[in-house]
Amino acid sequence: MKKTIFVLAAMAVVSLNSLVAAEVSAKDKASWGNFVAGKTTAERWTNIAKIAPNLLGMTRADVEKDLGKGTYSEKQDELMYLITDDGSKYKVFDNIIISFGKDSKVKSFVIITKAND
Q1: Which end of the chain is less congested by CB atoms within 10 angstroms, N or C?
Q2: Residues 34-38: contacts with CB under 8 Å, at least 24 apart
Q3: Chain-centre distance for alpha carbon 20
Q4: Can you give the chain as a three-state secondary structure string?
């Protein structure tokens, strides 16, 4: 029960941060350059589905072991990934942004879909 409440609280925090993240994500797409592990968009979504339930509390090394090398922002203490591989064609990008706490473990994450450039 406590874990469920914690996850719901984390999701609420993530949804509050998503407006800012959506604005940044599409504009900064060119600087990201790193995709979630997988050859296709479908494989990337499958990898996210496998790891997302266990993401909270993981270290950066553990996340990159499962999702591949991400683009890390020291200033924001966030790890960022692209999901869609055809985003430039439609100017729509799916992203995942993973935030770390002071203990260097995942404190929250947000998945942004259809972020218009």
Answers
A1: N
A2: 34/68, 34/69, 34/70, 34/71, 34/80, 34/81, 34/82, 35/68, 35/81, 35/82, 35/83, 35/85, 36/67, 36/68, 36/81, 36/82, 36/83, 36/96, 37/66, 37/67, 37/68
A3: 14
A4: CHHHHHHHHHHHHHHHHHHHHHHHHHHCHHHHCCECCCCCHHHHHHHHHHHHHHCCCCEHHHHHHHHCCCEEECCCCEEEEECCCCHHHHCEEEEEEEEECCCCEEEEEEEEEEEEC
pLDDT in tens, 6-56: 454 455 444 444 444 444 444 454 555 688 998 888 999 999 999 999 999
